[in-house]
Amino acid sequence: MELRHLRYFLAVAEEGQFTRAAERLAMQQPPLSQQIRLLEEEVGFDLFVRLPRGVELTPAGEAFAQNAAVVLDTLQQGLSHARRIARGELGSISIGLTSSAGFHPLTTHLIRAFGAAHPDIEIDLAELNAAELIERLLARQIHLAFLRKPVETPADLAFTQLLDEPMVVVLPLGHRLLAGKKGASAAAKGGTNKRMKGGTPAIPLEALAEENFILVRRPGAPGMYADILAACRSAGFLPQVSREVPRMLTGIHMVAAGLGVTLVPASMRHYDHENVAFCRLSNAHGLSAPLHLAYPSEMHNPAAGRFVAFAQARLASGLDAPASR
């Protein structure tokens, strides 16, 4: 028994005669009559009572018609569901992000805007370091990742740069580089935006030559770690890395405790810590913090592919996300 036999049978049952059913099915009446006879032979009972001007269902035929309709309706629903998944309209996405990538408003803006546009796609988030994100992408354990700068770009992965933002210096309140700067302490206590807009000085990278640096561990963020070392060398010194931490937020807490200084993307200023000041670099020696969207070169998850297309379309249109001021 084939699905077409069920469609033939239901068409005859609904039309009440072979002629109209054949027209509806765009076929000739004799082949249709033959197919119904073959179906009756297969099921082992008569489906129709043949009348002079048509047919009517037998009691057994009525019962079979109800179930046949359910089968075809269930199949149609399943096909429609599968088509939506294939088009990326339905499904789930696992997105990984580094802590610094998560602090940039563009990241949450894209995720939120995509979720609003595609409410039938479930989104799961996981915070990991850059190295872990690359590893999980390659293992197909996550579908997409927002991260800063990977030191390696495996051939199996693609990277779309969404933006580039400056790096800033994080200093503890009372630091010598803040001394004598009117309003620095008040600005630091007055909230995140005030700390960057006024009161804190712009500091050349060279001024940090004697400082103890707190950096995210090299294995966890190899690209950014390497860039910081390169920029410091360009500024004429090798940074004294006194501590390595698993996350940038941990580094900011250590700065607040007076254990050193650190460099973070400017958007990390949204983490409002009252015991630190975020200062611009007056000479960054090429140091910056790009934000990337990473994903498999061959996308097997249609919903994730739709997210990539969504992000790239926003990038092409100017990324109407809140700016990182």
TrEMBL record:
- Give one Pfam family, short name only: HTH_1
- The name this protein carries in UniProt is LysR family transcriptional regulator
Q: Which InterPro entries does this UniProt record tie to the protein?
A: BudR_PBP2, LysR_HTH_N, LysR_subst-bd, WH-like_DNA-bd_sf, WH_DNA-bd_sf
Family annotation (PANTHER family): SMALL NEUTRAL PROTEASE REGULATORY PROTEIN, TRANSCRIPTIONAL DUAL REGULATOR HCAR-RELATED
Q: Name one GO molecular function term.
A: DNA binding
Q: Does the keyword DNA-binding apply?
A: yes
Q: Which GO terms describe its cellular component?
A: protein-DNA complex
Q: What is the species of this protein?
A: Paraburkholderia acidisoli
- Keyword Transmembrane helix applies: no
Q: Where is the HTH lysR-type domain?
A: 1-58
Alphabetical keyword list: DNA-binding, Transcription, Transcription regulation
Q: Name the family the entry cites.
A: Belongs to the LysR transcriptional regulatory family.
